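quick one, 286 residues, struct below
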Amino acid sequence: MTRAPAARGGVAAALLTVIAGLLLFLLVDMVKERVAASLRFQVSPRQIDVEGDPGRLGGDFGRLIRGATILDRPRSIFDPELPAVVRANLERQAWVRRVKKMVRRFPNALSIHVELRRPLGVVRVASVPSERLAVDGEGVVVEEYTKLGPPHIPWIKTPGSRLTSVPTPGNRFKDGCAVQEAIGVIEEIDRVGGHPALDNHRIDEVKVGRRGKKRNVGDSDIRLVLDTGVEVLWGRSPRSAEGITEIPAETKLDHLARVQRRYPGLVGVELVDLRFERPEVKLASR
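---
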C-alpha cells in the first residue's frame, strides 16, 4: 500500500521545519557569540561607575575605589559571570561592606552602588608610631596609614593593654580586645547623637587603660580626652561582659553637661569621673 501524496508532503514539511529551526538556533548562537566577542560590548573600566555614601566623614573614597581591581579580565556586557565577578572583587576591598545594586548599561557600562564601611576611630599602634589604622564599627581595618583622625574621628589608644595582634586591611580586631572596647564606647556615644554636652567640645582620644597599670578586660578605666585636654573617665565599654551594669551613655552625657554648666568651658577642670550616679570633678592644681 503506497502513502498518499498529502501524507508524504506533511512529513517533508515537518522535517523542513525541524531543519529550519535547528539552523535558526545555530545562527542565533553564532550571532550571540560574535556580539559577545565584539569590542563594542566589552565592558570598559572607564565606564564602570561605583557610587557609595561616605557619610559625614569625607575622605578620598573615590581614589580608593578607583584603585580597586573590579574586573579580572576583559569581559562582555553579556557575560553571565560578570555580576558575580564584580561583586566578589569589590567586596574584597577593605572599604566596601557590600554591593547593594548593580545595573548593566548597554553597550559597555556598569552602574554599581555599594555600602561603604564608615570609620569610627583611628588606632594608634604604640609599637609602630607611623601606623594609623582606620577602623569601623565592627573593628574592621579599612585603611592603613590613614590620614583620618581628629577632628573627624578620635584616636584610639591602648596604653594599659598591649595589642597582641594587629589585623591587615579588610580584617577585624578580635572580640574582647581593647580596640573593640573603645569602638563600643564611640559607637554608643555616636548612637546618642547630637548631645548638648558635645556642642562645644570634641572627643579627640579614647584611651583604654593607663600606662604603668596592669589592666584586666572590662575594667572601668576607659577615658575620653576632649579637644581642650580635659579627661573624662567614662567607665566600662558596652562590649565588655561587665558593661551590662553601666549607666546609659545618654545619662553620662547629661552628667557631663551638668558639670559644664557648673564650670563653663570646663576651665580649671582636669578630670570628670562619670562612672557613678553623681559625677566627680578633679580640678587642675594651681
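Residues 41-116 form one domain.
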